[in-house]
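S2.1 Query sequence (Cation-transporting ATPase)
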Amino acid sequence: MNATLNLPEVEENGLTASQVRACEESGQTNAVKSTTSRSILDIVRANVFTLFNGIIFAAMVLVLITGSWKDAVFGFVILINTGIGIVTELKAKRTLDRLSILVTSDYAVRRDGENTEVPSRDIVLGDLLWIRSGEQVPADAQVLSSYGLELDESMLTGESRTVRKEDGDQVYSGSTAVSGVALARVNAVGEHSYAATLTAQAKVYKKTVSDLNKGINTILKFMTFLVVPLCVLLVWSQMRTVGGWNAAIASGEWRQAIVSAVAGVVGMIPEGLVLLTSLNFAVAAMRLARKNTLVQELESVETLARVDCLNLDKTGTITDGGIMFDRLVMLERMDGDDRVESAATQALYDLSNEEQPNGTGQAVLDGLGERGYHAGPVRARVPFSSARKWSAIVTPAAAAETESAADREPPTV
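Output structure tokens follow.
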């Protein structure tokens, strides 16, 4: 066994090199494609080909045909409105592509009777995987031999309490080993693992229904049926004013007639309302981004604005699952004595100040450290054990008092 990995002795040999190559050739590896359900082309198409852009673009083309490009400046509303939507949704796509529950790291596997470390993406189906304390489980597996393994499955289930795993139990990718070690056989990798399934569900694109945009589109649909005959009527009236089509074409007055007709029609389209709505959505999305909130689509801001109450589940899934030190409550017979409370608080700090404190110990160190407490002199230490359910320290003062009491006692005959 490779002693540098500090792992227990086992009889299992694991996969051979030829079996690993066969799994890699068949695609049974732990590599996961980080793509969303919405491509860049879909985002561009959804923001470019809208009813509003179609109406404004058609009007701009008519004006450009006349050669009066200065009168077609209103067409920049298309670029601004489309650009806001594309940029915002591309940022959301980039964030989703990077979204992953699993942390990329190296893991110990047993192959050909030897323990070796490989990247998480190189783990294959059927590998014998060592799950060690402090590591995240990279793939679904079944425990073959457990040496006190306890897992934190809060990221998957929302339950913050650790779960002890015995031989034969199933472990899922995304959970974290908080203590112990285990040898497990991988039975699901890559896109078939539990964590990859959760990540894929988070990346699924769902069309947001915006009542505000729905109302604007209803107005635009009504205007479409009204604008076309109105535009024809305005052009016809302009032609009659200049003496008919032949006279308008001969004198070039047809250009001004079309520009005037388009100006009358465009003035009826709520361009400012559409642009103002997009700008408000974009500003709201940027503010939410500063709060680490992902906005996949601009219209989802309106949905959030209609929320009256937000319910969160148990600690661990939406929240970070951390704990904080609040206060130390003294027993009634000791309450009110500042010296005793200060000594007890210092003792609590020293008890938690181990080489590798657990989550509770680290919370105590952080909380008391902010209140000015520092490590005191510790002469001896008995680490915490779940079997005896206590830990202890010996301070120089306590040791001196014990030695003094022992000196005062008469020798036993």
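The CA atoms of residues 144 and 184 lie 5 Å apart. The longest helix spans residues 211-241.
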